[in-house]
Model the fold of this input.
Amino acid sequence: MVIGTCIFKLRIPMATSLKEKRRVLKSFITRARNKYNISISEIGDNDVWQRAEVGIATIANSRKYVDRLISSIVDFAEDFNGFDVTDYTVEII
Done:
């Protein structure tokens, strides 16, 4: 069993309120969850308008599969309109 996690630090420059931030994050979280079948949630910077921290987790039988999946999710996040990925960390156990 292989567990993969990734934590994204995001900057949401167009958000002028928490409501706008939540709208952008909800769109990203819903699309990522549906496309990749992963666990995903906002895990930090909850009350800051223009920053967010989002965590994902996945589990599989193959390390190679988990590595490819997380790489694909990173690409998806970096191409997503509405925020900029400022940093991310990946851990595969």
